[in-house]
């Protein structure tokens, strides 16, 4: 069954262009763009995008659906999480499969395939969390790259859970230098942080705000610096996840000025929230506990600046939701037991558009950091991340003038609070197509679990 859709009259925005164009979609792919009104294409469906933006579907390269953490599980399943992503204009996620210590990478990857298969509303890929570096793991990394899992996350934090020491990190980086994989790093000095946690609790400092105080910006900067130097020794590229501190941005900028293949990601929570949220009374601050932690407000301007200067290239969500009732509450009386993570997969595109409205970034930069660069960074471009002939027809009709108030009452994530409750935003997703199929149609969900397919990835397309 051949199907054709025409989107007429919109402003097509990609990372490189803004053009008024009609868009022809055939059999799930972009077939052509044309000057408005010049082509009398016949179609099964015509969408009027007059006065709207026509943008690529968002690529969120950092999500944690169903992640086991701190004695509980992230509250979004692949079904609920991908549906919420679609509501927010994201049409591809790259989630993290987890290797447990004592198990193989393959076992972890198979477990995550089983969680996701047949349940996703949008397309998905996987990164691999490497928790146990040994000779067998290193060989497995080569096999995974060959089959399209081309990025590996390591942790300098969470001793006893995900932590890798410098020797393990160096070995994995050396391997990725050979096989083309990309090491993603959670850069915080977890050994030092654990000392500070122990000391804070001994002093009776148990409230959520102390989570931010012990996970010091200097320990994020130190770990970022160390990761960069280890990658330099290994001759490997490096991608630092969820950068939150201006001192860490400075380390990335310095490395990039030296010509190193070092990249940085930040998240909406670091651009819009701060330690003020962690300090909210009556344990409300626990809603904002994530790692790296929220920082004082003055860090926000430096992160926006990093996005403008390309010292930070990507904005992902690190979507890892835990309900306030029954999950975040596990840490009452001990901040170190609060499950780490925030909900955000539905809010990213809109929050970044607010950055456009406020003059912090341009429209094209919005699409670059939310769609095109994550697709390039993780080997999905030009199938994903742009609107061009041959690309998957992952397309969002975006109303830049619609106003909305963010609220848990109206969001679609499976979590009982919003990190952005009451925030007024200008701009809203109206219609979403995934490979040419309507997932959101004029603010109605028309998608289905199982439409989304697993997408193998090529290696990073961003290297010097």
Question: What labels would you give this structure?
Answer:
23% strand, 13 helices, 8-stranded mixed β-sheet, alpha/beta, 464 residues
Commentary on this structure:
The protein is 31% helix and 23% strand. With 464 residues, it is of the alpha/beta class. Strands 1, 2, 3, 4, 5, 16, 17 and 18 form an eight-stranded mixed sheet that branches. An eight-stranded parallel sheet has the order 6-9-10-11-12-13-14-15. Strand 11, helix 4 and strand 12 (182-186) form a beta-alpha-beta unit. Helix 4 packs across helix 7. The termini are far apart. 55% of the residues are buried. The mean pLDDT is 97.
* Spans where pLDDT lies below 50 across 5 or more residues: none
Strand content: 15-25%
How many β-strand runs? Answer: 18
How widely separated are the two ends?
Answer: 43 Å
Rg computed from alpha carbons, rounded to a whole number of angstroms: 21 Å
On the 0-100 scale, what is the average pLDDT?
Answer: 97
């Amino acid at each position: 069954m051949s199907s054709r859709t025409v989107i007429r009259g919109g402003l097509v925005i990609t990372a490189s262009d803004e053009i008024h164009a009609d868009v022809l979609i055939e059999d799930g792919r972009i077939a052509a763009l044309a000057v408005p009104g010049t082509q009398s294409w016949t179609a099964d469906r015509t969408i009027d995008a007059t006065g709207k933006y026509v943008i690529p579907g968002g690529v969120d390269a950092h999500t944690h659906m169903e992640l086991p953490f701190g004695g509980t599980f992230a509250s979004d399943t692949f079904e609920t999480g991908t549906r919420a992503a679609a509501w927010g204009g994201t049409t591809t996620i790259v989630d993290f499969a987890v290797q447990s210590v004592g198990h193989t990478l393959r076992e972890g990857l198979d477990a995550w395939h089983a969680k996701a298969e047949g349940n996703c509303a949008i397309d998905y890929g996987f990164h691999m969390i490497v928790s146990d570096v040994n000779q067998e793991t290193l060989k497995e990394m080569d096999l995974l790259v060959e089959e399209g899992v081309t990025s590996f996350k390591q942790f300098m934090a969470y001793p006893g859970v995900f932590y890798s020491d410098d020797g393990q990190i160096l070995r994995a980086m050396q391997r990725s230098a050979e096989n083309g994989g990309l090491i993603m790093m959670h850069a915080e000095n977890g050994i030092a942080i654990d000392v500070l946690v122990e000391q804070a609790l001994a002093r009776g400092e148990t409230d959520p705000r102390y989570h931010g105080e012990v996970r010091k910006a200097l320990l994020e900067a130190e770990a970022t610096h160390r990761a960069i130097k280890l990658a330099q020794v290994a001759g490997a590229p490096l991608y630092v996840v969820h950068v939150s501190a201006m001192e860490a941005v400075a380390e990335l900028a310095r490395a990039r000025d030296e010509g190193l293949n070092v990249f940085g990601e930040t998240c909406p929570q670091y651009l819009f929230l701060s330690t003020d949220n962690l300090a909210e009374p009556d344990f409300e601050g626990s809603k904002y506990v994530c790692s790296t932690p929220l920082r004082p407000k003055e860090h926000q301007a430096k992160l926006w600046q990093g996005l403008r200067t390309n010292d930070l290239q990507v904005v992902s969500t690190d979507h890892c939701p835990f309900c306030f009732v029954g999950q975040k509450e596990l840490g009452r009386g001990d901040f170190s037991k609060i499950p780490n993570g925030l909900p955000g997969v539905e809010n990213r595109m809109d929050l970044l558009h607010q950055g456009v409205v406020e003059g912090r970034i341009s429209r094209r930069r919005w699409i670059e950091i939310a769609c095109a660069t994550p697709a390039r960074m993780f080997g999905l471009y030009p199938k994903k991340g742009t609107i061009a002939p041959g690309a998957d027809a992952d397309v969002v009709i975006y109303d830049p003038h619609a106003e909305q108030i963010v609220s848990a009452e109206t969001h679609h994530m499976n979590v009982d609070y919003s990190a952005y409750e009451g925030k007024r935003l200008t701009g809203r997703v109206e219609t979403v197509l995934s490979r040419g199929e309507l997932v959101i149609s004029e603010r109605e969900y028309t998608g289905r679990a199982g439409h989304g397919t697993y997408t193998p990835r090529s290696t990073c397309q961003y290297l010097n």
